[in-house]
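Title: Comparing notes on inverse folding

I've been comparing how different people in this forum approach sequence design from structure. To keep things fair, I'm posting one structure and asking everyone to reply with a full sequence. Here's the target:
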């Protein structure tokens, strides 16, 4: 039990009332705008809020800078892809033209060879008819 061996009911009530009064006084001191500790806490909270706002601003600026950099890189990549596609189209067109040229030359050679064979056959036939 407590230090008093036999506290009476009134003593306990008075001690409880004093404890409530002490707690109330403590909270009133904490809420007092002129209290130095309260002023210091308020100043610290305001400094933390300001620091958070500055960090948020810095993060937003960094995010925007990163988005600009990504957009610039995407534009460069798109430009490079378009240039590569243009080069591929040009190369395909030149290869197709060269292939068509080769095919035309091959067909001309084949026709010349066929015409030569035909002429040789005709000449042989003519030779046999005349008996030369």
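Reply #1:
Here's my take.
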């Amino acid at each position: 039990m407590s230090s008093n061996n036999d506290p009476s009911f009134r003593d306990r009530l008075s001690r409880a009332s004093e404890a409530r009064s002490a707690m109330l006084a403590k909270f009133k001191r904490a809420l007092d705008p002129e209290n130095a500790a309260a002023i210091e806490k308020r100043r610290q909270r305001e400094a933390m809020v300001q620091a958070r706002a500055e960090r948020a601003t810095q993060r937003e600026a960094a995010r925007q800078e990163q988005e600009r950099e990504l957009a610039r890189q995407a534009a460069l990549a798109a430009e490079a892809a378009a240039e590569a596609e243009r080069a591929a189209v040009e190369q395909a067109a030149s290869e197709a033209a060269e292939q068509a040229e080769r095919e035309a030359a091959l067909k001309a050679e084949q026709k010349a060879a066929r015409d030569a064979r035909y002429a040789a056959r005709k000449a042989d036939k003519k030779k046999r008819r005349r008996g030369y």
